[in-house]
Automatic annotation (TrEMBL):
Keyword Isomerase set for record: yes
Gene3D superfamilies membership: Glycosidases (3.20.20.80), Maltooligosyl trehalose synthase, domain 2 (3.30.1590.10), Maltooligosyl trehalose synthase, domain 3 (1.10.150.200), Maltooligosyl trehalose synthase, domain 4 (1.10.10.470)
Residue span(s) of domain Glycosyl hydrolase family 13 catalytic: 16-634
The protein's name: Malto-oligosyltrehalose synthase
NCBIfam families recorded: trehalose_TreY
InterPro entries linked: GH, GH13_cat_dom, Maltooligo_trehalose_synth_4, Trehalose_TreY
Organism annotation: Kutzneria chonburiensis
SMART domains: Aamy
Matches recorded under Pfam families: Alpha-amylase
CDD domains: AmyAc_MTSase
Record-listed E.C. numbers: 5.4.99.15
Domain of life: Bacteria
EC class: isomerase
Length: 735
């Protein structure tokens, strides 16, 4: 079943199966096509996200177990809603070894374990390295408790017949070695998820491992799967083909991050991506290209430098494993090759152009590429491709995008912050391509991984229409953060997310600074810098005169931000693809990066507002966000009830003096969506005036307001000043 839309729920503490069952009625009333769940398998005790699966053969007990999942699924079926689940084929969680039966068994028995082949371990380099020791004297704290070694709260198994003597002596007889945590990035001998030591990769390319990791999920009979991080797999295409064979009728989307202009490999049997590509196109539409701030230097140079640093430091262990496969010793060439990839990874033999582009500048890199192309499915080609995605993610997403802060509304996964906005022409071309090439792909505006929620970006987009640099310079001089780019990020965050508590802002800036890795970092924190960052929110919010300036700007741009938010939402929900609504974003949402965007959602508030709307209330566009709930519910319901209306895609150009401020498209010849672009510029130019939206002749109804309008050959097209008199968006259906 292809859902008409999805609604993403983050399961975890406070949101188990019973709670989800309670809100299912609200999701049905909202117009949702399917509940889209974060991972539901047994995860690390206390997990807040579920991506650290510890037992893929069991449903999460903390969420309510298999009985609870079945009850939720049954309720969704009663309501006619689909069920889509996020799965994690690349890795499992090992932070609590005894919670993962496979990993525990491998630690106990080593290569003789029945589960040894499930993990990607380089056994040629000796015992499994477990990087948890706090210092070089950590083993002195080791204790023996029966058949377990204990290091503070961590427990590890003792192999049969290896006991006797001091704990340190027992430790030396095991199939693993507890080592200092800093050695992980350079010496680790098992593959992991990015640089996270507590997520160990599994060899899902092995049919037996695939069966072991997927049999339970596939037995659920859900309608769709979201595949997490396929770029980490040895053969993403092969994996997806095996999954398609196992679930031939299932809707499958891959969390594949596409570079601008990149397409999914044609051999992947999936409906499409999880929507970061659509996010860039839709959000960029509301940015004024004439308001581009001064250039902050070459983004490509910065990205390549950050990728090189990631390969050299965070991922040096992976670099060394690749280097060991070469007929020559040249880690520098490996690092350069990985840092020059223009995309996350190539998919040989299909993606050889990306590989050759990365290898073109250095003869040794070219030689590595030649060896990869000679055996595109061999271990060298596989490990380079797996690692290039890691390098891109750690270098660009988690470093460069926290440093290149000239206009942070653009700093999202899959975007290109050096490209200032998306023109209507580029947008329409992209939508037509999506409708013709991947009409069942997912589209998104916010996800659990976005660096800021859609409404933060929508408000920040307004800054492209106003003069902001003077105020920014004044505020930055008055209240700087320890690092220049962080100061710029800090002030944009205050403006974009205001009102925001000091605690939320403090936590966000601490994470941003450590990700940027300039003045402080996760690995090498700077206590003085960390202290200054922690003090900044209270210092800023405590300056009454300064905050008066800040709130004046926020108040001035907020109405235009609301207009952009409604425009984004309409375009996404009415446009090609299967739209996803991230939990809570049917009202204004000014969350920042996780864990801020995983805060509890007040579903009772949303249900009460929706009940008022269904009683005929047309809410004002105000801080309640009810206007966004109105737009969301009306479009979602129409998609679900009348899917035949949402086919095809054609441009519907407005005509008149303000035509450039209207973005309209038709789905077939009976449905037209129209939204307002660049509302500040529209108001400055005198409003819509006699701008019209030519519609095919007939009687039309705006499903958002319920108001009729008509278009005839004799009397012409509807005036946008009338069609958009209540809201800056409309979705009209011809009778």
């Amino acid at each position: 079943m292809i859902p008409s839309s999805t609604y993403r729920i983050q399961f975890g503490p406070g949101m188990g199966f019973a709670r989800a069952k309670q809100i299912a009625t609200y999701l049905d009333r909202l117009g949702v096509g399917a509940l889209y769940a974060s991972p539901l398998l047994q995860a690390t005790p206390g997990s807040t996200h579920g991506y650290d699966v510890t037992d893929p053969t069991a449903t999460s007990a903390g969420l309510g177990g298999e009985v609870g999942r079945q009850a939720l699924h049954a309720r969704l079926r009663e309501l006619g809603l689909g069920f889509v689940v996020d799965i994690v084929p690349n890795h499992v969680g090992i932070s609590v070894p005894q919670a993962n039966p496979w990993w525990w068994d491998v630690l106990r028995y080593g290569q003789e374990s029945l589960h040894a082949s499930k993990f990607d371990i380089d056994w040629s380099r000796g015992p499994i390295m477990v990087p948890i020791l706090g210092d070089e004297h950590g083993l002195e704290e080791l204790q023996l408790d029966g058949d377990r070694l204990v290091y503070y709260e961590q427990m590890f198994p003792v192999a049969p017949g290896t006991d006797g003597g001091a704990p340190q002596e027992v430790h030396e007889r095991q199939h693993y070695r507890l080592v200092h945590w800093r050695t992980a990035n350079t010496e680790l001998n098992y593959r992991r998820f990015f640089d996270i030591n507590t997520l160990a990769a599994v060899r899902v390319e092995d049919p037996e491992v695939f069966e072991a990791t997927h049999a339970h999920v596939l037995s659920w009979g859900v309608d769709g799967l979201r595949i997490d991080h396929p770029d980490g797999l040895s053969d993403p295409g092969g994996y997806l083909r095996r999954l398609r064979d196992a679930a031939p009728e299932m809707w499958i989307v891959a969390e594949k991050i596409l570079a601008v202009g990149e397409s999914l490999p044609v051999s992947w049997p999936v409906a499409g991506t999880t929507g970061y590509d659509a996010m860039r196109e839709i959000c960029g539409l509301f940015i004024d290209p004439n308001g581009e701030p001064p250039n902050a230097g070459s983004l490509q140079f910065l990205e390549n430098r950050c990728k090189e640093t990631a390969a050299r430091t965070l991922l040096r262990a992976e670099v060394r494993r690749i280097n060991a496969l070469l007929p020559f010793d040249d880690e520098e060439a490996v690092i350069e090759l990985l840092s020059m990839f223009p995309v996350y990874r190539s998919y040989l033999p299909e993606g050889r152009n990306s590989l050759e582009q990365a290898a073109s500048a250095n003869p040794r890199c070219a030689e590595i590429a030649r060896l990869m192309l000679a055996d595109p499915h061999g271990e060298l080609a596989t490990r380079v491709q797996q690692t290039s995605g890691m390098v891109m993610a750690k270098g660009v997403e988690d470093t460069a995008f926290y440093r290149y802060n000239r206009f942070v509304a653009l700093n999202e996964v899959g975007s290109d912050p050096s490209r200032f906005g998306v023109s209507p022409t580029e947008f329409h071309v992209a939508m037509q391509a999506r409708e013709s090439g991947s009409p069942e792909t997912m589209t998104a505006l916010s996800t659990h991984d976005t660096k800021r929620a859609e409404d933060v970006r929508a408000r920040l987009a307004v800054l492209s229409e106003v003069e902001f640099e003077t105020a920014f310079a004044r505020w930055s001089e008055r209240k700087p953060l320890p690092e220049r780019s962080l100061t710029r990020l800090g002030w944009q965050t205050v403006v974009g997310a205001y009102p925001i508590s000091a605690d939320r802002l403090r936590d966000y800036l601490a994470k941003a600074a450590k990700e940027a890795k300039t003045a402080t970092s996760w690995v090498d924190g700077n206590p003085e810098v960390d202290k200054a960052i922690a003090a900044w929110p209270d210092d800023v919010f405590g300056d009454a005169a300064l905050m008066a300036e800040v709130t004046e700007l926020v108040d001035r741009i907020t109405p235009a931000g609301w207009s952009n938010s409604l425009g984004q939402k309409l375009v996404q929900l009415a446009g090609p693809g299967v739209p996803d609504v991230y939990q809570g974003t049917e009202l204004w949402d000014f969350s920042l990066v996780d864990p801020d965007n995983r805060r509890p959602v007040d579903f009772e508030q949303r249900a009460a507002l929706l009940a008022r709307i269904d009683d005929g209330w047309l809410p004002e566009i105000d801080a309640s966000g009810a206007a966004k709930l109105l737009v969301t519910s009306r479009v979602l319901r129409l998609r679900r009830e009348r899917p035949e209306l949402f086919t095809g895609y054609r441009v519907v150009p407005a005509q008149g003096p303000a035509a450039e401020h209207a973005l309209a498209f038709g789905r077939g010849d009976r449905l037209v969506a129209v939204c307002t672009r660049l509302p500040i510029g529209l108001a400055a130019a005198g409003g819509w005036r006699d701008t019209v939206l030519p519609l095919p002749a007939g009687e039309w109804t705006d499903v958002i307001t319920g108001r009729p309008t008509s278009s005839t050959d004799n009397f012409g097209a509807p005036l946008l000043s009338e069609l958009l008199s209540t809201y800056p968006v409309a979705l009209v259906v011809r009778s």
